[in-house]
Amino acid sequence: MKYDRILLEHGGGGLLSNELISDCFLPLFKNKYLEKLEDGAVFEVAGSKLCFSTDSYVVQPIFFPGGNIGSLAVHGTVNDLAMCGGKPLYLSAGFIIEEGFAMKDLQIIISSMAEAALKAGVSIVTGDTKVVSKGSADGIFINTSGIGQISYNSPIGVSCIKPGDLIIVNGCIGDHGAAILSVRENMGINEGMISDSAPLNGLVEKILKACPEIHCMRDATRGGLGAILAEISQQSGLTFSIEESKIPVKEEVRGICEILGMDVLFLANEGKFALFCPESYASIVLDIMRSHEYGQDAAIIGKVSESSGKARLIMRTIIGGSRELDLPTGELVPRIC
Amino acid sequence: MKYDRILLEHGGGGLLSNELISDCFLPLFKNKYLEKLEDGAVFEVAGSKLCFSTDSYVVQPIFFPGGNIGSLAVHGTVNDLAMCGGKPLYLSAGFIIEEGFAMKDLQIIISSMAEAALKAGVSIVTGDTKVVSKGSADGIFINTSGIGQISYNSPIGVSCIKPGDLIIVNGCIGDHGAAILSVRENMGINEGMISDSAPLNGLVEKILKACPEIHCMRDATRGGLGAILAEISQQSGLTFSIEESKIPVKEEVRGICEILGMDVLFLANEGKFALFCPESYASIVLDIMRSHEYGQDAAIIGKVSESSGKARLIMRTIIGGSRELDLPTGELVPRIC
């Protein structure tokens, strides 16, 4: 390992996160499921194809415009299962709570989880609660894991992406990151600065029903759209060309990015995903997204092509130039989810 | 809720843990799976019976005689699935790591997880890593969730326990708690003071194969054998009579309990479980346990009977008296798992 100690960046979804996974976890946990590096693992049990995913949530502040750590924990795992092409069925919830945490806040968080689960059509069926002494954790951390059932016939994943595929996002990017940052920086709550935290399984189900050939889906959480596209490009060995002018971004979010010197491409989302499909299905996907509450600003933002040499993620900028994007290495936003 | 703030005891596996679950989680997450309050949820997906369980591990110290937080996290969830009568198949691993944590320690922990998974015959197929800033967590917390497949024909659970059932434990109790306490109290490492952390699925599989009628199994983790028996007695509405002289306890563990003023019945285990079965199968269960590496000191410790009125857990003490045991309410050992 390059580093003697864990840095914040090892959990940021950028280059160091990927290095930790590839240098530490993969060689030791070695198995074909984990090695795919998708949002969840896909396997068969007694002839049924299932998906399984986990995420721990450490977001700070725990209450933010558009949600709280509880609803986020449900949406995040529901979305990871949806990205595998699965119908999320059952969730677990593991709580680590700091001694002295307000019971009232816990009840609000649990209520939000219950509400989010109901809306997403999943049940929280098993759980665990640990309490650590004052100072040994920061408020509350929640892990959710989930099981989904896959009935889609075609495989979905990075290895299914083909040259010629179009890249579609289901709406404006950076909302979650902007909402968290606006609270942290005491910038006042602004109508546009609301987390996009939402369950995507309903939308994905509609798309999979209508389109027999969706190649890959990935939700753009930690590290934002830029990080997941750079990662998928590297994993697939293909080059992605995206157009900055086509990427939907809210004015308010663009504004906060300018003030804070952040790149919206690397700002977290909790209800946005990139979808890869053949050109022939792109307009159906777009229609379905735009007629759904979680896809109204959907747009085709780019295209996949063969790589001559190294796989690259290239963005044609608004001013007409061309910029190569890579996995973020610098300072990321900690505890964004 | 009786309390405004979360207390350490809300995570201790005793009375307050149970109240938190019944007053806060159950009414909001309301579903038939969670309400069973077993070690995991059991449900069917496309005709196959699966079990699903989760646990977060916050043990302190993270390295202890007989294991570390990594092996413990694998054994704990493997055992919860085994207690449901399931064959553990796939595990998830979610890490929350404090900034500055030594990479070398992380690698040792991951290695132990990999080794424990291999020995238990499960694969760690999906994961997540979050890093929080220095001071926002205490070293490392690990969540594992797991999926198992149930092929046992009879239902297993608290509601299956019948009057006349015998209660069997697979060996000496209190080892894990004693090992953790001996390190915390700087009592020096002693041969007998080694955690019993172990995967129980192999042993359980052998028992289920040989006995068509196992009524209930529960691993005696947080809160120890006393807490799980008190809990199951209350849940089942049946009275359990146990004999102190039959409960296997190592001399060294008894010694540390005397020094620290602890009751071994309420000391945590990570490789011990209570099994309920009809008298006719007890000797087969005992034989299988005693010929297995994780059951050599197995013993029949008590019997189930109808309750006249309130369900009770009654222990005939070594000196011939009778003591009623209840869910622990006082000070528990925090961060024991």
Structure notes:
The structure is a homodimer of 337-residue chains. With 337 residues, chain A is of the alpha+beta class. The first copy, chain A, folds into 2 domains: 8-149, 60s Ribosomal Protein L30, Chain: A, CATH 3.30.1330.10; 158-325, PurM-like C-terminal domain (Phosphoribosyl-aminoimidazole Synthetase, Chain A, domain 2, Alpha-Beta Complex). The first copy, chain A, is built from 8 helices and 14 strands. In chain A, strand 5, helix 3 and strand 6 (123-132) form a beta-alpha-beta unit. Chains A and B meet through helix 1, strand 1, strand 2, strand 5 and helix 3 of A and helix 1, strand 1, strand 2, strand 5 and helix 3 of B.
Write the layout of secondary structure elements.
The structure is a homodimer of 337-residue chains.
Chain A lengths: L14 H15 L11 E5 L2 E10 L5 E2 L2 E2 H15 L2 E13 L4 H18 L2 E10 L7 E11 L15 E4 L5 H10 L16 H10 L5 E4 L4 H13 L2 E5 L7 H10 L12 E5 L1 H12 L8 E7 L7 E4 L5 E4 L12
Parallel strand pairs in A: 5-6, 10-13
Antiparallel strand pairs in A: 1-2, 2-7, 3-4, 5-7, 8-11, 8-12, 9-11, 10-12, 13-14
Helix pairs in contact in A: 2-3, 5-8
Which range best describes the helical content of chain A: under 10%, 10-25%, 25-40%, 40-55%, 55-70% or over 70%? 25-40%
Mean pLDDT score of chain A: 95
Biggest sheet of chain A: strands side by side, in what order? Answer: 9-11-8-12-10-13-14
Report the structural category of chain A: alpha+beta
* Radius of gyration of chain A (Å): 19 Å
